[in-house]
Amino acid sequence: MIRKFFRSLEDLFFPPLCFHCDEDVCEEGTPFCKNCSELFEPLDPSERCSRCLQPLSHHSSHCPSFTKPYFQVYGSFENWGPPAVLLKLHQSQLFPKTASLIACFMLIEIERRKLPLPELLTWPQTPWKGVLPSPDKEIAEALSHLLKIPLAEGPTTGKTVGVVTGSIEDEKCLSFGKKLLEENPKRLILMSYIC
Length: 195
Ligand SMILES: [Zn+2]
Ligand SMILES: [Zn+2]
Prior knowledge:
globular
């Protein structure tokens, strides 16, 4: 892990080896080799609850309370192997293109499942927004750019709002959703890049 850390500092822009398996990476600027890129399997909706995306094998008869403020939950990929490494790279802020890569995977999943698009995008925010770096904010910005959907900058009244996050069960995500509901949006969609 330490070796990977230093290697990623050294080779910030063009890491020569795959971050997941250490094989050669042919394309400049990509963090994963071809084999590991193919391991980015999208979620299988048939194995997940359509409302909260929890695996049906672990699902009780009621959806968990974290979905309550949200009308629907979108997910992109499972939290294991290369996707989990991509997320760690993104959180470490050491590799410059991770937000766009994660946003691309979200876009692929949205198109594959023909999911309705929100009218505005945002991310779970705290009173310290703008002070601390936010991995969710960077991905929301990248997705806003890809989908040409504006980021919410004022009240969201009457709009369908996508909340971009990597932690759907997070208390912050739940309380942010409840707070947004006070603005009377049309509906809230939780857009999770990892489940
Ligand atoms: Zn690899
Ligand atoms: Zn559920």
